[in-house]
Amino acid sequence: MLGRLWDWWRTKKPLVDAAFMAPLLLMSALIIWNGSGFPVPDIALVLALCLPLVLRRTYPRAVFATVALSSFFQCVAGVDLLPANIAVLMGIYTLAADQPRIWGLAAAAVGELGAAMAALRYGGAGDDSKGMFIMLSIQVWSVWILGTYISTRRAYTRSVEERAERLEKERDQEVQMAMAAERARIARELHDVVAHNVSVIVVQADGASYAIETDTARAKEALETISVTGRQALAEMRRLLGVLREGDDAGSYAPQPGVGQLGDLVEQVRTSGLPLDFEVTGTPHEMSEGRQLTVFRIVQEGLTNTLKHAGPKAAARVRLHYGDEAVEVRIVDDGRGAAAANDGRGHGLAGMRERAAVYGGTVDAGPRPGGGFEVIARIPVREEVPA
Q1: Taking the domains of the chain in order of start, what are their residue ranges?
Q2: How far is CA 91 from CA 32, 73, 111, 218, in A?
């Protein structure tokens, strides 16, 4: 309750300024009261000095000009100094704290001029006049220094708040970029999973449709392969889509496939009816899961393209070579090659290149001169653990 009241009070600048002005008005009224009433000229002077202070922070320059002129006429008329003359110091402080530096200096200069006039008018002769001038000058420049300090402090506070706000926006942007990168990764994973498994299912379904009347056993085997492949595809899709769910406490998901699962991938493709030769040469490196996933997906995408575009009588060969500097993956088929139809909707080759580029690798793909298609990927392993 008190906090809300204080926040409301701080937003009402005229009320706050009136509260600071009230003591000056009261003390000045007590001084000019002579026991039988209030002299009208003195009352007018006090009101001219005090009432503008209600708008001190709303119109700081106009208020300072008003109280400075009122003090000037007071000095010229020879009216004694009053507590209300502190309004000049309050105006100097306001300009130094809330306005550009030049206005604060100008107000201090006007205050210094007023101190000299007051010393000559009210200080008498000799040392008394000098002492009064020094005292008033100290007050003027002390108030100006205080206002300048407050202005600097406010500027520093604003800069800190702006920096905190900027850092918060940058953090939100980083989170959004991370989310976008994760969505892109999931999209690539879904593309690889769906494209490969659906290609296997289509090939097996075509085989089953041809063999169902002549070779029941082969048709049954193809349908079983379709069932297993479909279940695997659904399981991987659930795992990938599961990371998009918020607040899901179902537990950790299955690990990503790596080079250890290439044998299972090769067997799955062979089961689909594609003759496939798989060879591993060199000394295997210890690679991170990310690099292993990249190798697996490149082989998977290459074989998926073979199933989709190479033709019914094609054969393929996969060679995985562990070199000193990089792992080389070569997927070759003897299918249609350049004669294969391209629907323009595939993203497999682009996905391969993106995956390899993450680790500084390259992917070269294209038809072979003697027929067929070839994919060659090189994934550097220099920063990985040695063999």
Answers
A1: 2-122, 261-387
A2: 23, 17, 10, 99
DSSP 253: P
- Is residue 118 within 8 Å of residue 81, measured between CB atoms? yes
- Kindly report the number of other CB atoms within 10 A of residue 107's CB atom: 28
Q: Which two tokens stand for residue 226?
A: 């379709």
What order do you get walking across the sheet with 362-367 strand by strand? Answer: 276-282, 316-322, 326-333, 373-380, 362-367
Whether the model clears a pTM of 0.90, i.e. scores above it, the answer is no
Distance CA 1, CA 4 (A): 5
Span 65-105, pLDDT tens digits: 999 999 999 888 888 888 899 999 999 999 999 999 999 99
Cα distances from 372 to residues 259, 311, 340, 367, in angstroms, run 25, 10, 9, 6
**Residue recorded with tokens 């604003």:** 158
- What is the C-alpha to C-alpha distance for residues 273 and 314, in angstroms, rounded to an integer? 10
CA neighbor of 195 nearest in space, from 336, 333, 345: 345
Are 372 and 335 a contacting pair, CB within 8 Å?
A: yes
pLDDT confidence of residue 332: 92
Contact 374, 316 (CB under 8 A): no
Strand 362-367 relative to strand 316-322: parallel, antiparallel, unpaired?
Answer: unpaired
Ranges of the chain whose pLDDT falls below 70: 1-3, 5-10, 34-38, 125-126, 179, 182-183, 185-187, 189-197, 234-255, 337-348, 382-387
Give the pLDDT confidence score for residue 156 in this predicted structure.
92
Contacts of 377 (CB under 8 A, 6+ apart): 295, 298, 328, 329, 330, 352, 356, 361, 362, 363, 364
- pLDDT at residue 93, as a whole number: 93
Contact 85, 45 (CB under 8 A): no
pLDDT at 241: 63
Counting every residue written for the chain, the total comes to 387
- CA–CA separation, 297 and 328 (whole Å): 14
**Contact status, residue 64 vs residue 24, Cβ threshold 8 Å:** no
User: Domain 261-387 falls in which CATH fold?
Assistant: Heat Shock Protein 90 (3.30.565)
pLDDT tens for 141-152 read 999 999 999 999
